[in-house]
Structures are given as structure tokens and as C-alpha cells.
Amino acid sequence: MTLQPDQEIQNEFEEENWTALLDEYDYAHPQRGELRDGLIMQIEDNGVLVSIGTKREGVIPWQDVRQMGDDYLQTLHVGDSIQVYVQDPENKDGDLILSLTMVQVAKDWDNAAQLLEDGGIVRCKVVGFNKGGLLVQFNRIRGFVPASQVAQLHGRTAAEERQQALQRMVNQEIPLKVIEVDRERNRLVFSERSATQDWRKAQKQRMLTELQAGDILVGRVNQLTNFGAFIDLGGADGLAHISELSWQRVNHRAKCSQPVRKFA
Question: For the stretch 84-116, what's the b/e string if a residue is b when 16 or more beta carbons lie within 10 angstroms of its beta carbon?
Fold first, then answer.
């Protein structure tokens, strides 16, 4: 049966609209930075082909896959469902570039944002320092602790002394609170001072509820005054009055010959 001109035009119109709809849909056109669920279609020498529902398959470069480690590589099979990160929707060769390692980085950013919202404390390793502060490693993200947020430093600390103090902290694990998350600028800022203050508040509250009269504790003297010694008990400060520093009369705290080690 021969189609009438009007019917031919209608069919062409519908086909064009359908094609345009598919092009527009195309699984919402992948955007850089998105996390997508995908299906492994092929494992090749130069990478892994993954379908994420678009007209063309994406590729995870082999160097990216290798960063996940040999143990992970052995778990990859054709037909497996995996989550991928859209690294480049279309490179200069027209390829859709995906990443596995960036999935973990994206999740680390999400965790950092959650810590900022919750006010939680996390322990991170100090991996370096510069004149401005400390460099710390938060999972796969490099973070920064400004010198003003380092607990043992204060505004009157001399520049040379400050650099020496920062250097001594390298390779240490320190408690931190997230105070700024800017994924676009790759900026993650922490505060040790704030984390330490919160930790001490929690410790003080715990000690006040657990301490009993007559308990004996070992502490560290952190300040001497004319009326006695302030002793750090591991989160809370206690005062040993000058009259309690020795069995003998003490006219001045500097003349006390006995070390202050116990607090009852």
C-alpha cells in the first residue's frame, strides 16, 4: 500500500521526534563528577568497557583500574555491576571516560561533608607541613590544618619555633574536626584546636561522673601559680592547692621539693 504524502510527512515527523527524544534522554547525558551504576561489558588490555545506559559505552583506563590494587582486579568480571565516576563525558577522541578510584574520592568528600554537618571528630595522619600549617591525609583526600588551628601553637609563637613544632608533628595521628569543605576548589580544612577542646569537654564530663572521693590519679602539672598547681588529668584540669603540695609548710610553690604526681 502506498502511503499518502500527508502520512509520509507524519511518519517522518514522529521518527524525528522519537530520535530527538532518545538523544535528549540518553540517560540524562552523563555529567562530569556524577556517580553512575554500570555493567561491565568487556575487559580489554587498555581498559574496561562499561555500559551506564548511554548510547555509547564508557571506558575505565587501565591505569585507573590498577590503582585499585591486584586483589580488586581479580574480582572484576564481565557482567558485574559496578559504580563508576564520570571523569570526562567526552574527551578529544569522543570517548566517555570513567573512573573507579574517583568513586572512592567522591565518597570521601561526602564523608567529609557529613562530618562537617555532624561536628564529628576524626583522626588523621600528618603527612607534611608548610609555613601555613599541617598537611593531613583524610582517606584519599589531602587536607590542611592552618597553624592557627593547631592546638599547641598560639599567636605569640615565634616563626622558627612554630616551624619546628609543626615538623615534630609529621607522622603523628591527631584528632581533627572539619571546618570547611569546598569540593570545587579541592579544599578541605580541619581544626585540631576545636577537636581537642571538644574532646576535653567530653573527657571532663565523663570524669566528673565517674570520679569518687579517695580516687588516686596520675596527672601532669601544666601550670604553677602562687596558690597551687593545675594538673592535667587527661582531659580535665584539677587544682592541687599549695597547702596540699607537701607534708611540710610551703611558702612558695617553687620551693616544693616533692614532685606532684598524685591527685586525690
Answer: bbbbebeeeeebbbbbbbbbbebeebebbeebb
